[in-house]
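Note to self: the last two entries modelled the partners one at a time, which told us nothing about the interface. This time every component goes in together.
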Amino acid sequence: MMHLLLPATLETLYMVSIATVFTLLFGLPLGIVLVITSKGHLLERPKLNAVLSYVVNMARSLPFIILMIFVIPFTRLIVGSSIGTNAAIVPLVIAAIPFYARVVESAIHEVDGGVIEAATAMGARPSAIIRQVLIPEALPSLVLGTTITIINLLGYSAMAGTIGGGGIGDLAIRYGYHRFNTEIMFATIVLLIVLVQLIQASGNLIASQILKNRRR
Amino acid sequence: MISIQNLTKVYQKGGQTVKALDGVSLEIEAGDRYGIIGLSGAGKSSLVRCINRLEEPTSGDLQIDGTDILRLEGAALRQARQGIGMIFQNFNLLSSKTIYENIAFPLRLQKLPEAQIRVRVNELLEKVELTDKTNVYPINLSGGQKQRVGIARALANHPKILLCDEATSALDPKTTKQILDLLKRINEELGVTLVVITHEMEVIKSLCNKVAILESGKVVESGETLQVFSNPASVETKHFIDTTSLPSRPSGAGHWLNLTFSKGSAKMPILSQIIRKHDIDINILAGTIETIQNEPLGRLLVEIDTTEATLKSVIAALEIQHVQTEVIA
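The predicted structure of the combined assembly is written out below.
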């Protein structure tokens, strides 16, 4: 059984970690732009904000399995193929970016307006306020939000098996479902539960460490 | 130093037009501790935020040392802001940074060398007496300590002006006094001009040499604090002073007079002279002595049961002795 589980787990970890990196890379700036272009914020741009918000909502309305098929031409353009683990990463990132952007948006929105006002009064430019005020102040919420996003990616990655993405979900469907192998099914479920617990526990730990440091 | 001419700020709220500022004109001179007092919603917060453009006025003119602040944009505006410190009711410290880093924040914005930042921050920590809290995070500080950090941070760039937005409103009376003393010291020792926004009469009395009373976005009265308090010209000012000091008139016989004694008149036996001279009885109903800018200001509410004619000569006698007299109807 291990010769099946180990590669599947590695594939899942590969997909999720690469997808996480790209999601953060695109989702964090998008989330920040959603906040600072909103009404009464640093760089108020109502029209841009409305358009971005609309696009984000639209992307989030699609179920992952449909989005995955829908973006196949784009996937082929990026990785040169529409099947395989790397091909699965593209729809994962596309699905997670709008989700993560909303997570970032709500975390950054929590930052006290007074602190932003104080930084503005000190002559800070918007880029400095984003880097030195908004992100550090929202860091504990951002860490927890990132944790949720990674767990979401783990869930999505299970569906990537349908396009030959491999991973734990793929294993569960092929062996557990199609071949009625209860042992494999059971093992993959335990594995997924353990992974989710580990990710959530690490996220909680990091966030609480940050907060604990700030009580010194 | 700060010259405000006919400043107006209008905004839309729930389909209604609100005039936060309605033609405000003020002259704040270098070295002033200028108080702006008003009830909440009077527009004082908008007014102070127009000075460093945290809010944009709709029209009017605002100059600081001859620079037209309202025309500044981008880098020039940011540079002007670095020369204007500001402290807040809720302190607005960064919870993610230590006290040291909070005070260093405005210096880091200017990318000063680390050694220079360290010298300046330590200097400021000493000035506000918080050297023992250098590496502590704001959550561990009391309100008064947080405001001292706020003051240190606001002074980091050697500003000529310090805007104080309800800086003591979240503090208890004892801490308020400490902060006001510190602000006064900063004004006297560093020559920093203070613009003090408050709804508390006590703040004006103990800190400000000049005061403007703001009501519904308009300056109803302004001038030297002692002058305004001892001889209020407008109904709004009287109302402001009365609601904070003397009781209102219950029904009863006799004429009620509100007497205000300042500088010269405070130390003379004026009332007993008048009693003897006019052969009348004076009943003292209430009295206070306040210290405004280190000058005593006495107020007496008295009742005199006498004829209109005698009353007139009593008032005349009082006013000769520089006692401000007001008949309460």
